[in-house]
Design a protein that fits this description.
Layout lengths: L8 E5 L4 H12 L3 E8 L17 H14 L2 E6 L1 H17 L6 H20 L4 E3 L5 E4 L5 E4 L17 H4 L2 E2 L7 H10 L21 H9 L4 E4 L5 E5 L26 E6 L4 E5 L5 E12 L6 E7 L6 E9 L2 E11 L6 E6 L2 E11 L1
Parallel strand pairs: 1-2, 1-4, 2-3, 4-7, 8-11
Antiparallel strand pairs: 5-6, 8-9, 10-11, 12-15, 12-17, 13-14, 13-16, 14-15, 16-17
Length: 363
């Protein structure tokens, strides 16, 4: 635990990108005893994204090591490939096969970075894990740790951290929560870190070329089915319903145009029959969410007026949230479009993250 001066033994999770490098540097500046760790998420790193994208490639591991050397801290590679495959990759495939739309980054934070990594760090005698996520941690008057949105709204990552529990937050450090990305890059350059100008990562790390549909087809094989309109008339066909997501407009390859000539969107995916239903954009609007598997950053609420975020970089929606018997019912004051089962609903009270749940049904 922290010594009398507040210094701690911490693991800095270093992805090979600029954010995690600067976060580690700030932890060193704060007087902590920092050990850099890079996560090996694949036994064959070339099977994941290659190039300087800041997450899981061989180049990223080298960038992380060079950053640790520049900071003068110890550096290790932890093999998390088995855990990553079980909890993130396999979950991603299973969710799409079931007609749902998962968020693998959120699942990685829940199961890998703040579960497997944190558990290992604590077992080894470390006090906390430092990451380059953009979120702000504050200590409430009652001593609990609150997670708030980052200062840089464009980089805020509180949505993908909404799965963290109070115990995990108490052993986490996010040094970049009060910074904007441009300043972080300037700081990295000033410190002589080679990753200062490295591009951000946007794609799913375990899909090398970013082609989700082709990758899922390779994993699941062809599963032909029909595309129908809201009246049930067949308007096209496909090789696998897992290649679609609710709200999708492009790549539908419909053989029959809409009567009014307007674009059509994916409204529903039926995984058993493989039927994909398309229709007008207005039919995507929902104002009710039924959510399951809630995870709370602090004490579970019973009922509250809040805002919810339904995509990683989506808008906030005003909502009434009710919690009962492990289920979360959300009534949206501000309706949303294109919301798919499997997505995360992250609940906010102002800037504070209350918790998250998985969307099971919309209405």
């Amino acid at each position: 635990m922290p010594d009398e001066a507040g210094a701690m033994r911490v693991v800095a999770a270093m992805s090979g990108g600029v954010d995690s490098a600067v976060a580690a540097a700030r932890a060193v500046d704060a007087g902590h005893d920092v050990t850099g760790v890079h996560l090996a998420l694949s036994r064959n790193p070339r099977s994941y994204r290659s190039g300087a994208r800041g997450c899981c490639s061989i180049e990223d591991a080298g960038d992380a090591r060079r950053a640790a050397d520049a900071l003068g801290i110890a550096f290790y590679v932890w093999d998390m490939s088995e855990e990553f495959a079980d909890h993130v990759v396999d979950d991603f495939v299973a969710e799409y096969a079931a007609g749902r739309t998962p968020n693998p980054c959120l699942r990685c934070n829940e199961s890998i970075k703040f579960a497997a990594v944190l558990d290992r760090a604590l077992a080894l005698g470390f006090d906390a894990v430092v990451t380059g996520h953009y979120a702000d941690l504050r200590t409430a008057p009652d001593g609990t740790i609150e997670m708030h949105r980052a200062v840089d709204a464009a980089k805020d990552q509180s949505y993908v951290l909404g799965v963290l529990t109070q115990d995990q937050l108490a052993h986490s450090m996010f040094p970049l929560g009060g910074s904007v990305k441009s300043d972080v890059r300037i700081e990295a350059e000033r410190r002589g870190l080679q990753v200062a100008t490295k591009p951000d990562s946007h794609d799913i790390c375990f899909i090398p070329d970013g082609d989700n549909a082709a990758w899922l087809t390779e994993k699941l094989g062809p599963r032909p089915g029909e595309i129908v309109d809201e009246q049930g008339a067949v308007v096209g066909s496909h090789d696998g319903a897992y290649a679609f997501t609710i709200g999708q407009r492009r790549g539908l390859r419909l053989g029959v145009p809409a009567d009014d000539g307007r674009p059509r969107f994916v409204l529903d995916i039926e995984p058993v029959s493989g039927t994909v239903t398309v229709g007008a954009r207005e039919s995507l609007t929902v104002d009710r969410l039924e959510c399951i598997k809630p995870l709370w950053c602090g004490s579970p609420p019973v009922s509250l007026h809040a805002t919810v975020q339904l995509r990683a970089h989506g808008a906030e929606h005003r909502a009434r949230v009710r919690v009962a018997e492990g289920a979360v019912d959300v009534e949206l004051t501000d309706p949303a479009e294109g919301i798919a089962p499997g997505q995360a609903c992250v609940i906010y009270d102002g800037t504070r993250v209350v918790g998250s749940a998985t969307i099971a049904r919309t209405g």
